[in-house]
Amino acid sequence: MASHGARGRSGGRPTLEEVAARAGVGRGTVSRVINGSPRVSDATRAAVEAAVAELGYVPNTAARALAANRTDAIALVVSEPETRFFAEPYFSDMLRGVGAALSDTQMQLLLIFAGSDRERQRLADYLAAHRVDGVLLVSVHADDPLPDMLSRLEIPAVISGPRSAAETLASVDSDNYGGARQAVEHLIGRGRRTIAHITGRLDVYGAQRRVDGYRDA
Question: Fewer beta carbons under 10 A from the terminal one: N or C of the chain?
Fold first, then answer.
């Protein structure tokens, strides 16, 4: 008695052609069903889905990505040593936030450290091979070469915290100036007159803006 399992006629993984033959439709129709196209009737969709389930067909994501010229991967690039990343809650909170934003998508998140010249060169080679669809760059310093490198490679990228007010790459940031100024004004309103400010690294634009807000309060 013959049995139907997850293997195709060749003994390997079931193919798109085998799903099409089982469902009695063309290869293109199977592809449209798998990719969620609305241009398929309910009856045809049900037949294809039944064939997929019966054969145990799993789409070849690598081939689909190649055909679509995309990788379904986003790189979170950190311009800091690994030791600092895992020691500071700021970075873990950001990592959780990015992961949460991607949780309802098919995108994969890659964490890449680029705190040294060697790591930056390795990153450049990796990105030049178009292995990610976009980059989120974190903890950028004033002389950081990574934003310019991303621009040259024409890879979609966003910086969390620009290098300066003249940043050319897309960026998102909190109101460092306004937050620092409001904090100092709050203390002044409580009668405090001698107020210290402990800065971060002043080659980071956000730290510079917090100092400005502190001084202007």
Answer: N
**Phi, psi at 91, each rounded to 5°:** -70, -40
- What residue spans define the domains of the chain? 16-59, 70-172, 176-216
Q: Which range has highest mean pLDDT (35-49, 142-156, 183-197)?
A: 183-197
Residue 2: pLDDT band (50, 70, 90) is very low
Domains 16-59 and 70-172 share a fold: no
Q: What is the pLDDT of residue 11?
A: 56
Task: Count Cβ atoms below 10 Å from residue 32 Cβ, excluding itself.
Answer: 18
CATH code for residues 16-59 = 1.10.260.40
pLDDT, one tens digit per residue, over 61-101 is 655 655 556 788 999 999 888 888 889 898 999 999 999 99
DSSP letters spanning 71-133: --EEEEEESS-HHHHHH-HHHHHHHHHHHHHHTTSS-EEEEEE--SHHHHHHHHHHHHTT--S
DSSP string, 170-194: -EE---HHHHHHHHHHHHHHTT---
Please tell me the class of the 70-172 domain. Answer: alpha beta
Cα(87)–Cα(89) distance, integer angstroms: 7
Query: pTM score, two decimals?
Result: 0.67
The residue length of the chain stands at: 217
